[in-house]
Amino acid sequence: MRDCRLLPGLVLGLAVFGASAFAAAAQEPDPEAAWQKLSQPTFDPQKVVRVDRLVIDRDEGRILLRSGSLGFAQPVNGRVLQAAFRGQGTFSFAPSLPLEIQQLQFHANTSELQVEFTEAVFVFSDSTFEEIAEQAEFGSGDAAGLAELYTKRNDRLRRFGLNWEPRLLHAALSENPEPYAFFHAELKTDDYGWLIFDFDRAELEEVQLARWHDQDRWAAIWCRFPAQGRTPQEVFQDPLARDAYQIQSYKLEITIEKNADLAGSAEVTLRSRLPGQRILLMSLDAHLRVSSITDSAGRSLTFFQPKDPKGRGYYVDNLVVVLPEPTQPDQELTLKFEYAGEHVVERAGSGVYFAQSFGWYPTYGLGKLTLHNPEFVLRFDFDLTLRVPRKYDAVAVGNKMEEQEEGDYKVTRWVTDVPVAVAGFAFGSYYIHEEELDEDTKVQVFVNKQPDEFMRQIEMLAQDVSVGGGMGGRSIPGPGGGGSLGAGLGTTSIDSSSVTGLEMLSPSQLGGVMLTEIANSLRLFEQYFGPYPYKKLAVSNIPGGYGQGWPGLLYVSSLTFLDSYQRHQLFRLLGGRITPREQVNLSDRFRAHETSHQWWGHVVGWKSYHDQWLSEGFAQFSGMLYVFYRRGQKEFLEALQADREPLLGTDQYGSVVDEIGPIYAGQRLSSHPKHRSGYSIIVYNKGGWVLHMLQMMMFDPRAQVSDARFIAMMTDFTKTYYNRAASTQDFQRIAEKHMTPTMNLDRNGRLDWFFNQWVYSTGIPHYEVSYSITPIKLENGQDGVRLKGTVRQSRVPPNFKMPVPFYAHQGEKWMRLGWLNIVGPETSFDIELPFQIEKLTIDEWEDILCTVEYKTN
User: How do strand 783-794 and strand 801-810 relate by DSSP bridges?
Assistant: First the structure.
C-alpha cells in the first residue's frame, strides 16, 4: 500500500454528504433547461482557482494539481458539476489486488503508476466543488479557455455515447443523489494520451482506470475494482445492491413493416429500490426513436436520447426518463414507451430477416458505458405481441398463445411460462420442421425457403468456378463477421467437380438434419446438466457465423445447415483458408455450444462480468462434449488441442494470449484495441478447458458410469441455481461437494488451489517428463518393472500444483495408473508395477491444459 500522507494544500477525500450540500436539489427546475446547461456548460469567469498543490484522493488514485488554473461550470439547479484544468499535475495509482496488479503490469509495464499531465477535465456529482469552495480562493481567469477544453473533450466522447450528461441530470434533479455520486477525471498525459480515472458509487467496483485510444475510439480498461480493499467476490455476492430499480415484467407490441422498420410499444413494470429518485437510467437502441413515454396515470414524461446514429454503431444507447415526482421506497411503476426506427431489423435476402439480439425493447441502464449489466442476474415475465408482414412466419421467446391475420399482418402472441432474462424473435419465409422431444417439449427448426445473402454469395462463387472462370477476386464475408472467406485468392483454378453441391444452396433442404442434431444435443445435455427447462426449443438460421441462444430460441449460422460434404467442398472452394478443425466449429460444436446456453446463461445466469465464463466457458465445454459423443474421441481431442493453441500463441502485437489476463478479468480482456481477441480466447477456450479438467479429475473408468461424479456436480449446480445467477465462488462450492480425494491437494476440502491457478490467475504449465523403465522381480517372484523419473514444471509460478495422471502403454493398449501430485519446479517418482509396459505418458486424454515433452533414460 503506498504512502497516504497528505501533501500541503487542499485534500479532497471521499464525499461526505450532508443536507446542506444538496438543499438546492429540492427545487423543481425545467429538465429540458437543465439538460441543455449540462450538455453545453458555460464556465464562470469569477470561479477560477489559481492552483497551488491541490490533491484529490479517491481510494487508490491520487491527483495532484501542482500549478495552473482550475475553472468550474455554472451551477445547474444549485449544483456545480463540471470543471477543467490547465497546468502541471501528477497522477498516481497503486492497486493492491493481485488481478489489478497483473493488469496494470500488462498494460503499463508497472505495478504502481505515476504519470504527469497538463490538461484535465473533471465531471462529478459528489462534494468535490463544496470541499474546494470551503478552502480555496476564487478569482477571475480564463474561463472561456477552460470551457473550450471541457466542451471539446466532451463533444469528442459524445460522438461515441460516452458522455456523462445522464448521470449529471440524475445528480441535479434527484432528491437523493448520494447513492449514485461519482468523480470522473480525464487526464492528458505525454506517455499515454488521455487517461480516464473514475470513482463511481453506482458501481459495485467503484474504482476504474482506463486509457482512451483516439484512433480506435475505444477506452481500454486497465484496472477496475471495489473501494476500501474489498474484493469483487465480496461485493458481487449481492449484484443488485446498488441498483435504483428492478424491472419485473414486459408487455411488448412489436410491428415489423414491409421495409423492415420496427415500431414498438413497451409496457414496463418496475419497482423502485432507492427512494428520492427523479431519473430512471435505461437503455434502448439509439436507432429507435422514442415518441412518447407515459406513466400509469397517462402523464407524459420528459426523456432524453442520444442523437440518431443514422445507421452507425453506438457504444451506449442511453434512455433517460424524468419521473414527475421522486420515487418512494418499494414503489411499483408502470411506464409505457412508444418508439420506432430502422436498422434494428435487417433484410438479408429474399424472405430472410435478421433481428438484432438486443436493444429492441427498453432495458436496464446506468447512464454510461459499464461492464455491470444485471439482465442475466434478473428474470422477467414477457408478454410479446408480434406483427410481421402476412406472408411471413414468426418465432419468439415464450409459448405461442395466439395466431391470426389482421389486414396486411400476421399477428402472434408469445408468453413466457417462467421468468427469463432476455427475449428475442425472428421471422421470415420459413419451412418448419418439428419433433416431440418428450410429451412436454417440442423442438422446431425454422429454415428459410431461399438462401440468405451470405449463402447466395457462396453459390455465386461455386457457379463461377464450375464454368471454369475461377474466383475472379470475389470474396464473401467471414463467418465471424470480420474479414472474408476466399479474399485474396484471385483466379485460383478449381476443378468444377470440387464444388458440386454448392451451386444451389437452401437451408431448408437440411432442416431435418438440423432438427435431429438439435434434439440429440438436448438429450445429451439433459443427461449431463439436468432437465431442459422450457416447453419448446425453436431454431432459426441467420446469416454468417453469428450465433445466439435465447430462452427457448436459438439463432444459428446458415453455415451450420450445410452437411459435412458441402462444408468440405466449401473449404476446397476457398483454397483451404478454413482448416478441417474449423468444420467442427461451424457445425456440430457450434450448434451444441448455442444449444447449451439454455442451461448456461438461462437456467443458470452469472452475477458479474467476472463470472460470465460460467456461461461461455461452460458452453464451449458443452460443444466439445457433444463432439465426443457425435464424432468420437479423435475429433474431441482435436477440438481440445485447437482451443489450446491460440492460448499459447501470440497476438499481432506479440503478447502471449494467456498472459493478457485471467479468466476472471472477463470482458476487460478485450477492452484494449490491441488485444480484441483476449475475451473470446481466454473466457471461451480456457473456461472450457477448466471444466474439462474438473471432469477428468472426477472421471472414474471403473465406475458403471465413468462420468457419474461429474454429472452429479453439474446437475447439482443447475438445480441449486435454477433460474438464478451464480458466481465463480458459488460454482466452486458445488465442485467441492463432489471432489475426489485426488483433488483435495491442500487436505482442507477446498479447491482454492485449483480456482486460484486456473480462473483467478494466468499461466499454463509445461511438463518435461524424464523416466526410465527397468525390469525387476517383485517380492512374490512376479516379473515387473520399476518406473523411475522426474517431472519438471515450468512457465507457471513456483508454487503451482497439479495432480497429473500417469498412463502405461502396452502396444495399442493403455491404462491410467493413477495420479502424481506435481508441486513446484520438480517432482520425482519411483513406482513398481506388477506387469510390463513399453512407455509412460501423462495427459493422454488431454487431461490438463498444458504442454508436454518426454525424455527417456
Answer: unpaired
Taking the C-alpha atoms of residue 475 and residue 56, their distance in angstroms, rounded to an integer, is: 55
Distances (CA, A) of 107 to 103, 358, 489: 6, 31, 37
Beta bridge partners of 104: none
Largest CA distance in the chain: 101
Relative to beta strand 783-794, strand 826-833 is antiparallel
Contact of 627 with 556, CB cutoff 8 Å = no
CB atoms within 10 A of CB 472: 12
**Closest by CA position to 459, among listed 494, 507, 503, 509:** 503
56: left (phi over 0), alpha (psi -120 to 50) or beta: beta
Rounded Cα distance, 227 and 242, in Å: 14
Confidence of residue 609 (pLDDT cuts 50, 70, 90): very high
Give burial (CB, 10 Å; 0-12/13-18/19+) of 244. Answer: buried
Q: What angle do CA 93, 70, 54 make, to 5 degrees?
A: 45
Other beta carbons less than 10 A from residue 706's beta carbon: 14
Pairing of strands 851-856, 766-777: parallel
Instruction: Give the three-state DSSP class for 817.
Output: strand
Q: 3-state DSSP helix/strand/coil percent for the chain, to nearest 5?
A: 30, 35, 35
319 C-beta neighbours (distance < 10 Å), count: 25
Instruction: Please compute, for residue 810, the number of CA atoms within 13 A of its CA located in the half-sphere on the CB side.
Output: 8
Residue whose C-alpha cell is 469567469: 45
CB 222 within 8 A of CB 203: no
Do the strands 826-833 and 113-124 form a parallel or antiparallel pair, or are they unpaired?
A: unpaired
- Under 8 Å between Cβ of 178 and 126: no
Location of C-alpha cell 494520451: 193
Within 8 A by CB and 6+ apart from 706, the residues are 699, 700
The DSSP code sequence of 703-757 is SSSTTHHHHHHHHHHHHHTTTEEE-HHHHHHHHHHT--GGG-TTSSS--HHHHHH
CB atoms within 10 A of CB 857: 10
Sign of CA dihedral 420, 256, 536, 680: negative
d(CA 673, CA 241): 31
What is the tens place of the pLDDT at every residue in 348-377? 777 888 887 789 999 999 988 888 888 889
Secondary structure E strands in 390-533: 393-396, 399-406, 409-415, 425-428, 430-438, 441-448, 476-477, 484-485
pLDDT of 474: 36
Q: Are 292 and 373 in contact (CB under 8 A)?
A: no
User: What is the chain's length?
Assistant: 857
Residue 251 grid cell: 408487455
At 259, is the secondary structure helix, strand, or coil?
Answer: coil
**Residues facing residue 556 across a β-bridge:** 541
Rounded to 5 degrees, φ, ψ at 277 are -100, 125
Identity of the residue numbered 142: D
pLDDT at 841 over 50: yes
The Cα 562–Cα 571 span in angstroms is: 12
What is the number of other CB atoms lying within 10 angstroms of the CB of residue 404?
Answer: 9
In this prediction, residue 579 has a pLDDT band, given cuts at 50, 70 and 90, of low
pTM here is: 0.91
Amino acid in the structure at residue 406: E
Please give the helix or strand (H or E) that residue 254 lies within, else none: strand 245-256
* Residue 653, helix vs strand vs coil: coil
> Could you give the CA distance from residue 223 to residue 200 in angstroms, rounded to a whole number?
14
- 523 DSSP β-pair partners: none
Please name which of 569, 546, 577 lies closest in space to residue 495, comparing C-alpha atoms: 569
d(CA 136, CA 839): 79
Question: Would you tell me the crossing angle of helices 613-631 and 728-737 to the nearest 10 degrees?
Answer: 50
The predicted-structure confidence for 316-346, as pLDDT tens digits, reads as follows: 789 999 999 999 999 999 999 999 999 999 8
